[in-house]
Amino acid sequence: MIDQFAAGYLVFSFVALALFQLAIVLGAPLGEYAYGGQNPGKLPIQYRFASVFSFLIALAIAGHYLAQLGVLQPLLDANLNQIVNWGLVVFNIPAAILNNITRSRKEKRLWGGTTIANLLASVIVAL
After folding, report:
1. Distance from C-alpha of 120 to C-alpha of 41, rounded to nearest angstrom
2. What end-to-end distance do the CA atoms of the chain give, in Å?
3. Closest by Cα among 54, 35, 51, 20 to 102
4. The predicted structure's pLDDT at residue 4
5. 104: nearest Cα among 48, 53, 31, 24
6. Fewer Cβ neighbours under 10 Å: the N or C end of the chain?
């Protein structure tokens, strides 16, 4: 039961992240909330290009957790799914660290707690 709640939270979180990255790609002035917050306003093209990849990765992760919940057809067998779950735990470790040590207060306020919650939820799902 708790693992399904954690997976549902992760779907919500990664869809929100994907939408945030899409907004950056489309030119929203969110520079203070991303990439260390060193570029207030509309981000330069190289960051917007990086956000395309972040958008796609966040959607793929959300899709993985939707498959965990039975909403989407699983593409992986149980053993490979477990490996991917632990891989996502490892993926969330640097995200939690980097978003909590950033010098940008706005970025830390927005993503600091979220990335820690993502890490904890991903551990719950992986267990």
Report:
1. 31
2. 12
3. 35
4. 96
5. 31
6. N
**d(C-alpha 84, C-alpha 73), whole Å:** 16
Spatial separation of the C-alpha atoms in residues 87 and 75, rounded to whole Å: 16
Distance of CA 46 to the CA centre of its chain: 20
Best CA proximity match to 118, nearest among 94, 92, 99 = 92
Q: Within the chain, which residues score under 70 in pLDDT? A: none
- DSSP one-letter code for 39: S
Q: For the full predicted model, state whether its pTM sits above 0.85.
A: yes
| Residue 35 structure tokens | 């990439």
Q: Could you please report the per-residue DSSP string of 47-108?
A: HHHHHHHHHHHHHHHHHHHHHHTTSS---S-HHHHHHHHHHHHHHHHHHHHHHHH-S-HHHH
